[in-house]
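note to self: dont lose this again. the chain is below, predicted strucutre after it. 178 aa total, dont forget to put it in the shared folder this time
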Amino acid sequence: MLEKPFAMFRRPKPAATDVPTLPPARPQRAAESPADASATSPDTVAAADTLGSMPLGLEGYCPVTLVDLGTWAEGRVQWGARHRGRTYLFAGQEQQATFLANPDRYAPALSGDDPVLAMESGVSTPGQRRYGVTYQSRMYLFTSPETRATFAANPGRYSADVLVAERGRPTADGTRRY
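---
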């Protein structure tokens, strides 16, 4: 799942829109001893959720560090949390607690699925962080520059649909389905 996670550090050339792209990836590692260095390797991160069978959110990067500081920090397996069908990893316990206090503020919209494909064709396809943008303080991930450009042409339409989708619809027992 995390094949060559650092190969995408270059920011794609922005389209002529007013929708900003996510900040360029700049990995940030906490000081770690050689003994625990393998805990954040891509192989360990990819293998970390094999028993839980939930996809890894944001390709294993810490969403709190990204939203609050604008930097990419690799998450650590021991600081993981699940939200809306994804497992998110955090740089530390403080970031995990911050996320758990308000997960929708930090998690990508639609759990990282491409909102254009979801709304236009009803297909849930995970977006990639290299095609991510922020719009009205929310992170949106896309599968391609084309779907990102479609979103940029009318972001209000898609963001409104995302809000409706994330609220879910009430079921017979009064709970909400997502």
